[in-house]
Amino acid sequence: MKKKSTLRLAVFGTLFIFLVFSGLAQEKLREDRLNSNPIQSSVPANYKGRPFVDSTHTGRAQVIPGKLECAFYDLGGEGVAYHDFETENRGSGGLNLAPRHQRPHATQYEWAFRNEEAVDVSYTKDFADFNHLNNYYTPEVNQFYVGWTEDNEWLNYTVDVKIAGKYKIDALYANSDSKISFDINQTTATICKLPLNTGNFHHWNKGEIGTISFSKPGLHLLTFHYNKGNNFAYFEFTLVDKKIQGAK
After folding, report:
1. Domain covering 62-242, topology
2. pLDDT tens-digit profile of 87-139?
3. Residue 220 Rama label (left phi>0; alpha psi -120 to 50; beta)
4. 128: phi then psi, degrees, rounded to nearest 5
5. Which of 31, 190, 231, 232 suits 120 as a labelling partner, its CA being 20 to 30 A distant?
6. What are the domain boundaries of the chain?
């Protein structure tokens, strides 16, 4: 019996070691494949911005297809990552300094998000965004958004496009049914129209606003141009027509 038990232990031990090393080998193979196929970049060489990073976010480019959070615009400052007509962040650096706007469902992270940058950022609050029945679409609690918008402001995003092709764009926004536009790599790509006027900066809607096409996968510089009259939370990019490799 002792010999059989010893034999079983030896077999199980060998199997365990094999599985461990097999798993490590597969992981190494995946890493090697990634390293041998680096992400191609179409970001203009003169662009000095970089993807947003903080204690919570890794600093990787936001991915398309997927959700593009407006408040996670690139790092780089005025004239590089964004253009804002005021030097004060009127949300995190102004309004949210008041105790009343430091809501119990949020933390200092939400209250003070990017408060040293000029882009006006805030978050959805119980007494402003959820105390009524006027939302066409209900955002998440503590959803970041860019607000206090002015004409001809813009934000830059380094995006990682996984699949080349045509994408449908949906926006989560509030107030005006204005026109906005996007550039890809510093060239105008599409002009979009928000579908309806919600009537208030804290009455939210989510809807399709247009389409945009990326000619190749990899890193791209996406510039979001907007005007006065809206709060913008995020955009969702959904692939509707995949580009066939080699097609023009």
Report:
1. Jelly Rolls (2.60.120)
2. 999 999 999 999 999 999 999 999 999 999 999 999 999 999 999 999 999 99
3. beta
4. -115, -40
5. 190
6. 1-38, 62-242
